[in-house]
Structures are given as structure tokens and as C-alpha cells.
Amino acid sequence: MAALQVAINPLLRVAGGEEHFAFNAAFAQLVFGAASFVSPQVYSYVVLHLGTRSDQDNVLLLVLRRLVPAGLPWVSMYWIFSGVIILMLGMLAASGFPQVKRTEEEQAGALHMYRYLLRKPVVLLFFASGVMYVGSEQGTADWISQFLEQYHHLDPHTAGAMAVAWFWGLLTLGCAVGMLLLKLFDSRRVLLGFSLGALASLTVAVVGPAPASMKLMELLGLKIGDFDIIELNEAFAAQGLAVMRQLGLPDDAAQVNPQGGAIALGHPLGASGGRLAATALYQLNRTGGKRALCTMCIGVGQGIATVVESLALPIP
After folding, report:
1. How far is CA 79 from CA 60, 76, 284, in A?
2. Residue 92 buriedness (CB in 10 A; 0-12 / 13-18 / 19+)
3. Distances in Å between the alpha carbon of 232 and those of 58, 104, 202, 283, 307?
């Protein structure tokens, strides 16, 4: 993907003109998202119909039945993908490409420049962030179907595939909106607007512990006053205060993070939940308390909460 973008972006700039580059780049993402939206639906169609025969089977199903081993309908997607690649290569071979003259910023540069850059920690962090972004994006898309099957008992070939399709479909819709805005407004104003929207989304996301805790208390028949200890992660100070106020707690509630929150202790990467639960358990043991609430915010507006109770067994 990165290699394609390095090759395609200069081509987009030359073929479409620099003044249309922002629009064309958004259009490229639109095509990518649209394909990702359609492919899970194609998968569902093939899986559901490949093993059954009717009087009106289309050519695609007839061909795939000859190529795909029985009991492995998912293999058909590899054949479909290969056919699309061959078609795309044929279209590219028949198309005329303009001569790309790279700008100074697009030049590859000498080898010593890369050695110099790779010695800088910020450059290594940039590559690491790219890996984490792609891993998070693809990991979310790949896990949706399995999550729905494991926890909600939905068929991964139908409901799961549609969930994946709509995950990418919303990306496609966002690209379409972005393209429209780029035609109506200056690209810098669009960037500013989306940045403000991201900040607003973050504001909504970080208060996720409050509704998660309220839902949990409703399910368990508990009230906020039933907890001797409340361990709340602190993304930042204002976030902690916002959650406490939504839960009806005073700003200086003694039972909230009595050993200090993340502002004092830090965020252990990938282990904040474990730190909250362990701290709550040991604090219950020290004080003789009975019940603790552990709650934290998660990315994209989620929240999680759990309740632990002491069985009066001392922790060594």
C-alpha cells in the first residue's frame, strides 16, 4: 500500500493537475473504500450460493465450482481477486500515462540521506506509527466478524461480512463527503473543520466510562454509593472530572483513585485495565472494603467497567 501511494501520488499530481490533487487523492480513497465495501458482500454471495445449484446459476458460480475445492468456498475470493488483478493490468497496459516529472520534494535522494534519517528517533517512530495505524485499521476490520460470532452468535459469512462491509462503507461515505467539501471550500478550511470534528469526537469518547459504569450498575442493581473504591483511568485531568460529575461524585471524592490515578502513576501501555483492577484489589484488602468499581475509556468512544468484591480473604 505504501509503495503504491509513493508511485500513485506523483502520477495523480501530474495527470490531474496540482490544483485538483486533494480531490483526486480523496477520490482514490473513495475507490478503495468502495471496493472494501463491496468485497465482503461478494464473499457472502459466493459462500451462500457456491454449494447450492439452481436453474439460473450465473457464469461466475459455474466457473468457481470447477476451480474451488468442495468445502472451501472462501478460496473463491482468491480466484476473483486474481481475475480483477489481471483485468486491471490489462487496462493499465492499454492506457497511456503522462511523463511524471518529480518535484524536489519527491526525489528519492542519496543513500547517505537515508542513513542520516534512520539515525533519528522521530523517523523510526514515524515508521512505527504507520505499522500501528495499519495494524489497528486492519485488525478492527478483521476482528469484527469473529467478535460477532463469538459473543453474539451471528453467522460470520452473512452478518459478520456485512458488518465488515459497513465498516469500510462508512469510510467510503466519509471520502464522498470530503470530496464534496473540497469542491465547495478551500482545502485548508476542510482540514481545519475535520480537525475540529476530531477534537469533538475525542471529547465524546473520553467520557465513555460514565455510561459504561451506569449500565453495569443498572444490570447489577447497584448505586454509585455502594462502592468503597473507584478506580478511574485519567486520560487527562478534565476527563476524570467529567466522568466523576456524570456519575454524581464530588470533584474531591475520597474513594476515587485513593492511591493516585494515571496522572500520578502513568499509563502502562496495554495494561491500564490490569493496573486498575490490581490497585482496587489491594486497596480493598488494606481498608477492609467490600466492593470496588474499575472503569476506563477506550478508543473510538467506547468505555468499559467492572466490579470486584472482596471475599474477606487476605491478599499476600
Report:
1. 10, 5, 59
2. exposed
3. 57, 50, 18, 14, 12
Cβ-Cβ contacts under 8 Å for 225 (sequence gap 6 or more): none
Domains within the chain, CATH numbers bracketed: 2-184 (no CATH), 209-309 (3.40.47.10)
pLDDT digits (tens, 9 = 90+) for 251-274: 999 999 998 888 888 877 778 888
List, for residues 17-53, the tens digit of each pLDDT value. Answer: 777 877 787 787 778 788 888 888 888 888 887 777 7
For the residues of 234-251, what is the DSSP string, one character each?
Answer: -SSHHHHHHHHHHTT--T
Q: CB-hemisphere CA count at 13 Å for 263?
A: 12
Provide mean pLDDT across the span 61-65. Answer: 83
Q: pLDDT band at residue 200, thresholds of 50, 70 and 90?
A: confident
Helix orientation angle between 187-205 and 161-184, rounded to the nearest 10 degrees: 140
Three cell numbers written together for 207? 467520557
Tell me the Ramachandran region of residue 88: left when phi exceeds 0, alpha when psi lies from -120 to 50, beta otherwise. Answer: alpha
Q: Report helix, strand or coil for 233.
A: coil
User: Which residues pair with residue 308 across a beta bridge?
Assistant: 292
Residue 311, SS3 per DSSP: coil
Any residues with CB less than 8 A from the CB of 65 and at least 6 apart, and which?
A: 50
Residue 156 CB neighbour total at 10 angstroms = 18
